[in-house]
């Protein structure tokens, strides 16, 4: 499902005399229509496609009208390309400032999966403006945010740009009562670990297995137990899903069977009904029951399918290795597991993910492993991944352990000294040097690996670690928890230093005084570069525990596979 | 106060007209008004005089002088007229002076005599010369209508958006019309002209003869015509001294009057008040002024001097050499209050207040009288309204005082009308002051709006007053003070005798961080005046760096623009500057600039990656970025190149680059890839099948699957494939082939580096339990249980687990126990467990 489907599906478009929909691609349009409308992200590649198409039409001597609608905004570079390709005069351009898609009651997505690669790999800051615009839109709707926190360079830039927008249009939001008490900005690169872990909460697992796109999933024949695939919207309106989405997978089956029994019992009630009761039952309850029945069988099907897939690849082993990496023991064993994984060509993306997880948790690979794993990988999956490795290194996802601490220490010191703008320059200059993740130290400081006495009861979670079977509290979520508890970064200096990101906090007392206590419980979390369903589940849990309500704004919902794909070089 | 109505003149039964002095003029005219072309803008606007016009047969060598005065006679500008002969002068709605020359050129000057622009009224006009011209105002703006020497009309309804329209010809017109005027009806401009006894109406398409209804017969010529301020009424003056007054549509007659003066009047203008039923016109001859309306008698005034009439919305201004007066119909409220022996509530209230001040009990009597009639509210309103129409502050005050007094006795009188009137009057009195010289009446002020009034003050460079008014009226800063300060600053930058530093500092001191002020606009103005340095200084104060960029680019300060664009965080803006720079600088300089701006550099790289690959290479070369250069060639090796030689060459270049980058790993890997590529090529030539672009692993697998075991082993040796990988690879490939014999042989070739559990797994994947069992027996003890379970031998697995006394293994087996078949085994395990616990 694409964002457009969520707003105007095919039938609505057809009602408005859209003849046919195509994906913008590098091939001629087969349509015989007199006019073509392109709804595109402002990317040079898309411009090239359009130019090829228009020029092909010109060669064929046909005249059409072309309209290019850029969403969320038009970029000068795109117009430049249209001009260079000689079709600027042939097309008319427009903008559709569409930046926020509500996927669920508590989840807003900008549907910009490219944000991650653009910013964290290519250093392209184009979307920051879009983020600022989106926040500006939110603050015009819900009033100012009295408390702002953030960590990361992108977070800081987004925040500053957004503040500037607010100041320019002062007065509009000034007098309004704040409806959302806190806003929290997070850069994805501050916590790669969480995003790289296998997800075991139902919603995350569905995303990992079937890929949720725009809040909807395509269940194949193996799930629907028919010969057709089915598109299913996954959100709070699906009552069955809503109850299991945040559950650890091991509970889901039990829950579903209990649910099935209840449903059966409700069906069974009709026995021994008189005519009138039966009429009532048919007219009022049956439809709901049937709907529930349908959903239930779908989710049971999905569970089965997940189980089948996961057991095949020895999911238990995988999870065990991941936990070992997180806790930092049996590194050698884990390394050989990864090696075997690569040797067996299990999956290029999975292998890469494990390598990255190893690198980040260990502050980079030791030189021998770094070389041998890469060699193995290239042998298994092809030489073009040499570029993938160069990307991963630049993003700090897969690095070699630095011979000493000296360089990184200098880097962190320098970036502390100079302003953020200059820091960009310096970071760029240092980009060839390994970035250190300091995961182990952070983990210790923030107590991310809970000490478990006996079995961790996943049915009754104690803390956010339940989203990773009780083995690990997501770093991003822990930071949010800590900052909200203190209402500042105070006492977290050491963590911030280890994270090597700049942090900020800003509280406007005048606004806070105006905020109702209810709105102060409402927290908007902005993930720059994407967030995972596990993080969402963890924060939902935190919300229930502490009486907060979280709303998520993410550039896109992501998972480990998406992150790795964004970093991968593939042959065209 | 008794003689307050002394200057009131009744016209008919119901209306009074009064004339009062606005200013005594001390403009020290050298010439008589009649010798000048005169133009006075409505709404108390400026007066322009062009002395020594050409129609007087004076020596053409003497250059005429164009003078501009405020309505109070303060000189604003004076300049020597150096262009051609002028036929007509007029003010536009924006208070720009339009000078229509004989050749049809219209020169536009500002209030201070600054030349703005010029435009032409077309070729036809140029050829036939201008005979007469009118500047008129409509809702669209100010228009110019021209009568040419060929007796044709050309007009433009809006000089701001010049569209010339030539009007159709009047049939049989041999001489110039005796009089003509523009009419504006239904958003269309017409021309009404009189030729002898006939009237013609010209519109876009046609010329039609019209007859005013109820016109007395015997008219042989019309001498003068006048249209009211709002284009609603028309008056015609005939050669018999007869005046017809009616609607401008010529459909209805309002009244007529015979003044018995046959001499053509110098001027005739309407004098009426909006929303008043009274219609009157003012006719001026050399020494006589007559107010004529729907009454048998007229009001007559003697003119001591040459005078000039300016029609206004609610009256007529009359200025001469020494005075400037206003003639209007006395408004109803004033009439009610001041009429002799008036018993109107307002009049009584005014009286009551006066008595109250005298501490007389009569105050109470008057007040009681009003209250008994229940008219106190009305009385207060009347006093407030009347105050607005009074010119003298004293009188305004006493009326307002009366209103205020009356208000005390009212319970719930909303105060805003009173407060607003006080504010309005303060503003009006301020601008009416002769130093300012804008004699607006209350109705005109309301029609004009405060915004326009502020604009006009700004236009007159009366910045302090404008700001005071804004502050006094508490206008929002963006509309009020900031806007005016911005105008001031724009004016300030034009003062060429002040140094850049001083101007910039002065502007910044005044403006500070006032919201809504755009420093970039001011800088743009400075740049427009040729003061680039000043513009740059001013831009420094602009808080939004994005705003600075376009101007900096225009001023060719592209590098500065680049850093400002980067500061703004707007990538699109950065890109705009980049492409600008790219065209402006030579390649080397451009790259050097980029080098210092990493954000711009990465942006440009992105662009190049898609659009200009060669440039990207140059960029890396320039930076000695060998790592990226290597990556670039790697990408080229599979994306750009097709032939194998080209690909190998690209890889070779990449290798060199990697060596330079001291990335030996990448260099080695690339060398390997070159070798592999060549080899794959050879394989393709020698064997069937596709090898190119496979990974090393896949190449070996393909070879095994194709039965080329020897070659596969050779390849594995050449590329030093580790044993573990080779074993996995072979195992999988042979199982895929279902070559169980070969697999068994392979398994026995030496001790497996990956153990034998994988053999079991892979066999089971191929559903070959028989083969799997073979290997299960060879699995080492640590994986034995798992292997046995895989082949489905639960019972044996249980035995092994019990032997191992391993709790985890036990539960694993237990979880595999299903149904009745394994019941015994399950029991066994439970027992073993119990035993273990006992111990």
TrEMBL record, chain A:
The keyword Membrane does not apply. It is a peripheral membrane protein. Pfam families: Sec1. InterPro entries: Sec-1-like_dom1 (IPR043154), Sec-1-like_dom3a (IPR043127), Sec1-like (IPR001619), Sec1-like_dom2 (IPR027482), Sec1-like_sf (IPR036045), VPS33_dom3b (IPR043155). Its main location: cytoplasm. It comes from the Eukaryota. The keyword Transcription does not apply. One of its GO terms (biological process) is vesicle-mediated transport. SUPFAM superfamilies: Sec1/munc18-like (SM) proteins. GO terms for cellular component: clathrin-coated vesicle; late endosome membrane; lysosomal membrane. Keywords: Protein transport, Transport. It is found in: Cytoplasmic vesicle, Clathrin-coated vesicle; Late endosome membrane; Lysosome membrane. Belongs to the STXBP/unc-18/SEC1 family. This is Vacuolar protein sorting-associated protein 33B isoform X1. It comes from Carlito syrichta (Philippine tarsier).
Automatic annotation (TrEMBL), chain B:
Its main location: membrane. One of its GO terms (biological process) is endosomal transport. Pfam families: Vps16_C, Vps16_N. Residues 4-420 form the Vps16 N-terminal domain. It is found in: Late endosome membrane; Lysosome membrane. Keywords: Coiled coil, Endosome, Lysosome, Membrane, Protein transport, Transport. InterPro entries: VPS16, Vps16_C, Vps16_C_sf, Vps16_N. One of its GO terms (molecular function) is actin binding. It is a peripheral membrane protein. Core component of at least two putative endosomal tethering complexes, the homotypic fusion and vacuole protein sorting (HOPS) complex and the class C core vacuole/endosome tethering (CORVET) complex. Their common core is composed of the class C Vps proteins VPS11, VPS16, VPS18 and VPS33A, which in HOPS further associates with VPS39 and VPS41 and in CORVET with VPS8 and TGFBRAP1. Interacts with RAB5C. Interacts with STX17, MON1B. Associates with adapter protein complex 3 (AP-3) and clathrin:AP-3 complexes. Belongs to the VPS16 family. This is Vacuolar protein sorting-associated protein 16 homolog. It comes from Carlito syrichta. The gene is VPS16.
């Amino acid at each position: 499902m694409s964002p457009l489907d969520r707003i105007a599906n095919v039938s609505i478009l057809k009602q408005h005399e859209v003849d046919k929909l195509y994906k913008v691609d590098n091939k001629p349009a087969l349509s015989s229509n007199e006019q073509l409308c392109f709804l595109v992200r402002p990317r040079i590649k898309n411009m090239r496609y359009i130019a090829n198409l228009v020029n092909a039409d010109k060669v064929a001597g046909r005249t059409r009208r072309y309209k290019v609608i850029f969403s969320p905004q038009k970029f000068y570079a795109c117009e430049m390309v249209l001009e260079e390709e000689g079709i600027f005069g042939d097309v008319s351009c427009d903008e559709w400032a569409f930046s926020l898609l509500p996927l669920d009651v508590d989840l807003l997505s900008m549907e910009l999966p490219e944000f991650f690669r653009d910013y964290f790999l290519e250093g392209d800051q184009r979307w920051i403006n879009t983020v600022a615009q989106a926040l500006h839109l939110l603050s015009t709707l819900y009033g100012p945010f009295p408390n702002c926190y953030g960590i990361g360079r992108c977070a800081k830039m987004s925040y500053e740009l957004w503040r500037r927008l607010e100041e320019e249009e002062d007065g509009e939001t000034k007098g309004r009562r704040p409806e959302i008490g806190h806003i929290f900005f997070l850069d994805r690169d501050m916590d790669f670990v969480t995003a790289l872990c296998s997800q075991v909460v139902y919603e995350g697992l569905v995303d990992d297995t079937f890929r949720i796109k725009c809040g909807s999933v395509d269940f194949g024949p193996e799930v629907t137990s028919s010969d057709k695939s089915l598109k299913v919207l996954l959100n709070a309106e699906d009552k069955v899903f809503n109850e299991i989405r945040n559950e650890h997978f091991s509970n889901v089956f039990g829950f579903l069977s209990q649910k099935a029994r209840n449903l059966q019992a409700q069906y069974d009630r009709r026995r021994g009904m008189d005519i009138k009761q039966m009429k009532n039952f048919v007219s009022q309850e049956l439809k709901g029951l049937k709907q529930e029945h349908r959903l239930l069988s779908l989710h049971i099907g999905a569970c089965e399918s997940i189980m089948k897939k996961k057991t095949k690849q020895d999911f238990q082993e995988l999870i065990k290795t991941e936990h070992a990496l997180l806790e930092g023991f049996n590194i050698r064993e884990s390394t050989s597991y990864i090696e075997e994984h690569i040797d067996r060509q299990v999956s290029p993306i999975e292998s890469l993910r494990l390598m990255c997880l190893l690198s980040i948790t260990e502050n980079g690979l030791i030189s021998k492993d770094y070389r041998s794993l890469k060699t193995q990988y290239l042998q298994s999956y092809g030489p073009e991944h040499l570029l993938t490795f160069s990307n991963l290194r630049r993003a700090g996802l897969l690095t070699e352990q630095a011979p000493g601490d000296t360089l990184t220490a200098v880097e962190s010191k320098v970036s502390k000294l100079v302003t953020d703008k200059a820091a960009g320059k310096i970071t760029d200059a240092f980009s060839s040097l390994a970035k250190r993740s300091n995961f182990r130290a952070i983990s210790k400081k923030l107590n991310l690996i809970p000490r478990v006495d006996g079995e961790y009861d996943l049915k009754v979670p104690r803390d956010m670690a339940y989203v990773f079977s009780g083995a690990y509290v997501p770093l991003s979520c822990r930071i949010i928890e800590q900052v909200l508890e203190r209402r500042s970064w105070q006492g977290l200096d050491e963590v911030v230093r280890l994270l090597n990101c700049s942090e900020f906090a800003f509280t406007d007392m005048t606004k806070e005084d105006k905020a109702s206590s209810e709105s102060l419980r409402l927290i908007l979390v902005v993930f720059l570069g994407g967030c995972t369903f596990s993080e969402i589940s963890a924060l939902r849990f935190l919300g229930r525990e502490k009486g907060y309500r979280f709303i998520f704004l993410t550039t896109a919902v992501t998972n480990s596979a998406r992150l790795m794909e964004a970093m991968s070089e593939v042959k065209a | 106060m008794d003689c307050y109505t002394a200057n009131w003149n009744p016209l008919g039964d119901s209306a009074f007209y009064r004339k009062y002095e606005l200013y005594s003029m001390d403009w020290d005219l050298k010439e008589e008004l009649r010798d000048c072309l005169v133009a006075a803008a409505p709404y108390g606007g400026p007066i322009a005089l062009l002395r020594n016009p050409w129609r007087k047969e004076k020596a053409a060598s003497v250059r005429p002088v164009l003078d501009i005065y405020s309505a109070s006679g303060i000189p604003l500008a004076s300049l020597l007229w150096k262009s051609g002969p002028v036929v007509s002068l007029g003010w536009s709605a924006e208070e720009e002076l339009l000078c229509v020359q004989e050749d049809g050129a219209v020169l536009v000057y500002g209030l201070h005599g600054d030349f703005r622009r010029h435009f032409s009224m077309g070729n036809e006009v140029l050829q036939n010369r201008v005979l007469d011209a009118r500047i008129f105002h409509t809702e669209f703006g100010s228009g110019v209508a021209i009568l040419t020497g060929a007796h044709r009309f050309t007009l433009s309804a809006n000089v701001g958006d010049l569209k010339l329209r030539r009007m159709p010809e009047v049939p049989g017109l041999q001489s110039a019309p005796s009089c003509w005027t523009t009419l504006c009806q239904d958003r269309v401009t017409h021309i009404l002209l009189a030729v002898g006894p006939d009237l013609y109406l010209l519109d876009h398409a046609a010329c039609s003869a019209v007859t005013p209804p109820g016109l007395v017969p015997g008219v042989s010529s019309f001498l003068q015509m006048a249209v009211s301020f709002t284009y609603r009424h028309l008056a015609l003056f005939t050669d018999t001294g007869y005046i017809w007054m009616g609607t401008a549509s010529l459909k209805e007659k309002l009244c007529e009057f015979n003044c018995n003066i046959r001499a053509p009047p110098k001027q005739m203008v309407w004098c009426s008040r909006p929303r008043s039923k009274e219609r009157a016109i003012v006719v001026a001859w050399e020494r006589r002024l007559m107010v004529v309306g729907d009454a048998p008698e007229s009001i007559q005034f003697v003119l001591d001097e040459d005078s000039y009439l300016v029609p206004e919305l609610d009256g007529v201004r009359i200025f001469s050499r020494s005075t400037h007066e206003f003639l209007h119909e006395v408004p109803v409220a004033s009439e009610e209050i001041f009429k002799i022996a008036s018993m109107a509530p307002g009049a009584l209230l005014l009286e009551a207040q006066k008595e109250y001040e005298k501490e007389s009990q009569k105050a109470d009597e008057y007040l009681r009288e009003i209250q008994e009639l229940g008219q106190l509210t009305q009385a207060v309103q009347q006093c407030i309204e009347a105050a607005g129409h009074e010119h003298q502050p004293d009188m305004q005050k006493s009326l307002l005082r009366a209103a205020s007094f009356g208000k005390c006795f009212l319970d719930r009188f909303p105060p805003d009308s009173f407060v607003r009137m006080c504010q309005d009057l303060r503003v009006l009195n301020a601008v009416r002051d002769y130093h300012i010289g804008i004699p607006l009446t209350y109705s005109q002020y309301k029609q004009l709006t405060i915004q326009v009034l502020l604009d006009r003050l700004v236009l007159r460079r009366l910045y302090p007053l404008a700001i005071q008014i804004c502050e006094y009226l508490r206008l929002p800063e963006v509309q009020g003070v900031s806007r005016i300060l911005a105008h001031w600053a724009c004016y300030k930058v034009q003062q060429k005798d002040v140094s850049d530093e001083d101007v910039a500092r002065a502007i910044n001191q005044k403006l500070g961080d006032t919201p809504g002020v755009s420093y970039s606009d001011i800088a743009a103005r400075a740049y427009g005046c040729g003061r680039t340095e000043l513009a740059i200084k001013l831009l420094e104060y602009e808080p939004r760096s994005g705003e600075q960029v376009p101007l900096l680019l225009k001023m060719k300060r592209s590098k500065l623009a680049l850093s400002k664009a980067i500061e703004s965080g707007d990538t699109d803006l950065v890109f705009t500057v980049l492409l600008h720079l790219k065209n402006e600088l030579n390649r080397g300089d451009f790259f050097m600039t980029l080098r210092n701006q990493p954000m711009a550099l990465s942006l440009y790289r992105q662009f190049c990656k898609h659009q200009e690959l060669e440039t990207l290479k140059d960029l890396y070369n320039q930076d000695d970025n060998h790592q990226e250069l290597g990556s670039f060639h790697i990408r080229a090796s599979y994306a750009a190149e097709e032939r194998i030689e080209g690909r190998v060459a690209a890889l070779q270049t990449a290798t060199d680059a990697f060596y330079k980058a001291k990335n030996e790993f990448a260099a080695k890997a690339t060398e390997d890839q070159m070798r592999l590529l060549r080899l794959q090529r050879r394989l393709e030539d020698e064997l069937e099948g596709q090898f190119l672009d496979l990974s090393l692993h896949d190449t070996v697998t393909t070879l095994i699957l194709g039965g080329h075991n020897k070659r596969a082993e050779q390849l594995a040796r050449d590329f030093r494939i580790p044993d573990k990988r080779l074993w996995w690879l072979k195992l999988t490939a042979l199982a895929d082939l279902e070559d169980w014999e070969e697999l068994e042989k392979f398994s026995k070739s030496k001790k497996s580096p990956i153990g034998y559990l994988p053999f079991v797994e892979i066999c089971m994947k191929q559903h070959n339990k028989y083969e799997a069992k073979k290997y299960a027996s060879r699995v080492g003890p640590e994986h034995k249980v798992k292997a046995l379970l895989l082949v489905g031998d639960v019972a044996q697995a249980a035995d092994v687990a019990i032997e191992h006394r391993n709790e985890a293994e036990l539960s694993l087996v237990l979880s595999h126990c299903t149904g009745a078949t394994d019941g015994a085994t399950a029991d066994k395990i439970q027992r073993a467990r119990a035993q273990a616990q006992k111990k």
